[in-house]
């Protein structure tokens, strides 16, 4: 839970010491944080000053012992140790044993598609191989300066930060709690940044600034930009290239488990708009399989399996889900896709109806479980609906029990007490049970519901 430029310092120190990092999404609720801390068997927490209050509130419900809370800034509660004080107490230079490449580097918890979040096991070797692949494919070197905007509990930021640390290049961490579009431009100009990775929402907010504001900053140093985590429209991409006139634009598809899978390169951005590109150079291969494990013909939809040299080592304490993720040496996170005649990959369903809002992954089933506990709710479906700024927002479609009445505000308040804010429905619709689209076995058809409401 660190802030400032310390995340990179702490991440490198943990890796060098052979300790396992568990980046924690600070937007989670207290119960979600407690689950991850306990499930991961975390034995110490490092937290920035703005998170001391949250940590103090939950510490009685965790297994972490007093004296294992390292607090950046002044220690604000009993049992906490100041980060700087801890460093000052160190005895000279400690020589660490060499870390085996196959050992675990980090546990990265994904949002729970079904049930609780899963801890993705990433090795030191996998991290190094992905850094090498990124540097080779995108032409990075130690002379680059990267700006990491998304928090380091996101795999996207963690993987790019690791690349620049491996190269010995400058890596700037933007620790603002909320995205500041003008602040971004100021940092790009002041630090002569050469690369950053943003989600479409970030770009839209930057481009919406008044021309006088945008013209105030020299962003000519930016030579490469990444856009990912959600689809981007043609007008957005063209506007990005117009404003960042010295930059090339890339788009990637990947996952916490598989790492980078495909890349849409600069010359392909408009010609293959909507595609996520082809395999990264030297990173492996892709297969699209039907439910029987057979390769589907070109143009048809299949489940996307990738085989990369930096694939994850399984889910922590979850052998069943680990087995489900692999077919031989091939890994899948449940995305459905098709391949066109030129070999480009086009995603059809993103992670079993996953919603991507402002770059955050939201799984409908997690929200549906919470809504289903409401005493007035008989059945519910949660879908993503298009939003001009955030890409998608969460919509709940609810069937109430006979004779019950509820308001959208009542449902939203129920969710806000049980879920992180970004997972809560922005809109609520009530329908009759007969109007909920279902399969012959009674399963709700989310795709048909989206088509009906969009």
UniProtKB/TrEMBL annotation:
GO terms for biological process: fatty acid metabolic process. It comes from the Bacteria. Residues 366-443 form the AMP-binding enzyme C-terminal domain. GO terms for molecular function: medium-chain fatty acid-CoA ligase activity. Residues 12-316 form the AMP-dependent synthetase/ligase domain. Keywords: Ligase. Pfam families: AMP-binding (PF00501), AMP-binding_C (PF13193). PANTHER family: ACYL-COA SYNTHETASE (PTHR43201), MEDIUM-CHAIN ACYL-COA LIGASE ACSF2, MITOCHONDRIAL (PTHR43201:SF5). Belongs to the ATP-dependent AMP-binding enzyme family. This is AMP-dependent synthetase. It comes from Candidatus Entotheonella gemina.
